[in-house]
Amino acid sequence: MKSNEKITLQWHGAAHYHLYYKNIRIVIDPLYTRAPAAKPVLNVSKEDVDSIDLLLLTHAHVDHSWDFPYLAAKHKPAAYVPESYLNYLIKKEKKWELDFDFSKFHALDQIKGDSFQIADIEVTPYHIGTEKVGLSVVYQSLIRGFRHMSFSVTPAGMKFLLYHLKGNCFAFHFDFPVVNKTMLFFGNVTDQVYGMENVEQVDVLALPYCPASKAWLEHTLYLIGRFKSDVILIHHYDNFWHPITHPLYRDLKEYRNFILQAYPKARLYFSKFMQEVDFLEVAESPPSCSP
């Protein structure tokens, strides 16, 4: 395989991925902006990006879309976004003094289930259920800044919870013919998937480690069982948005063991922060050990 035909993933934390293929850069759910004192530190900024060819957005929560407007206006890539968020950008363009090329925007609600091409990669967006946010998350977001004397966290937390809370969410199915592998990418977990009857199995199922509600573990197991993936790629949120991790967040070892108790033969691959990883390293990773 030629070097420029390799599929490379680079994880920036949260659900923010860069996917490189044939000198094309695809960015999913961009989040360079961090709350004060957030860890680990992201030592690059949105200004450091030299080019973007495509921007994909699973949903418009602030921890997925915060830096989307800046990147879309600066690089003017093809962009695939929920329709409600596209309408929001149209309203805000003049106020923010940004210049979008809306001729390159596509409303996911209008093309869900229809494939589009990125070089020879086939990408299909699917409508999925919205992210559930539990009351305990709301409570912790209110009091965390006061408890830890980091008051700037509270307004950021509230914006995260309220920003496009009810907008449609989407998953992206990638078909990579160069390696004969598929990946189904989720920015949030849910037990509601629509129009995906033809997707019975995928090679890599990309899921967030995101305990925003009591149902997140149940929904995680549902998706693993539903799509019978060879490998589960886990991009965990942990401490990337708030400097104080929410008490509901589980230890990664505990989370791993929880999955393996239900699926002892599951192959888990935890995302590597800011490392460029060959997609085949993920898709062909060895089996995980049972607890």
Task: Compose a concise summary of this entry.
With 291 residues, the protein is an alpha/beta fold. It contains nine helices and 14 strands. Helix 3 links the parallel strand 5 and strand 6 (105-107).
Q: Largest beta sheet: what is the strand line-up? A: 6-5-4-3-2-1-14
Question: What is the third-level CATH name, the topology?
Answer: Metallo-beta-lactamase, Chain A
What is the gyration radius calculated from CA atoms? 18 Å
Look at the helices and sheets and give the structural class. Answer: alpha/beta
What layout of secondary structure does this protein have?
Blueprint (H helix, E strand, L loop, with lengths): L7 E4 L5 E5 L2 E5 L25 E3 L5 H4 L2 H8 L2 E4 L1 H14 L8 E3 H4 L4 E3 L2 E8 L6 H13 L5 H10 L6 E8 L4 E6 L17 E6 L6 H12 L3 E6 L15 H11 L5 E3 L5 E3 H5 L8
Parallel strand pairs: 3-4, 4-5, 5-6, 10-11, 11-12, 12-13
Antiparallel strand pairs: 1-2, 1-14, 2-3, 7-8, 8-9, 9-10
Task: Give a verbal description of the structure.
The protein has 9 helices and 14 strands. The model has no long low-confidence stretch (mean pLDDT 86). It has a single domain (3-283), classed as 4-Layer Sandwich (Metallo-beta-lactamase, Chain A). It has a 7-stranded mixed sheet with strand order 6-5-4-3-2-1-14. Strands 7-8-9-10-11-12-13 form a 7-stranded mixed sheet. The protein has helices at residues 62-65, 68-75, 83-96, 108-111, 135-147, 153-162, 216-227, 252-262, 279-283; strands spanning 8-11, 17-21, 24-28, 54-56, 78-81, 105-107, 116-118, 121-128, 169-176, 181-186, 204-209, 231-236, 268-270, 276-278. It has 291 residues and is α/β, with parallel strands linked by helices. Helix 5 packs antiparallel against helix 6 (153-162). Helices cover 28% and strands 23% of the residues.
